[in-house]
Amino acid sequence: MNAFEQIKSLTMISKIEAIVYSFRSEFPDCFVDLKPWVKNDDTKQFNDPNSIDIGFHFRNPNFSCQCRSILMQVKIHRDLEQEVYKAVEIELLGYEAYQEQWQFSTVESWEFSGQSKPKLEAQELLKQVCSQILQLFNNPQSKFSRQYE
Question: Of 86, 85, 75, 90, whose CA–CA distance to 23 is shortest?
Answer without folding.
Answer: 90
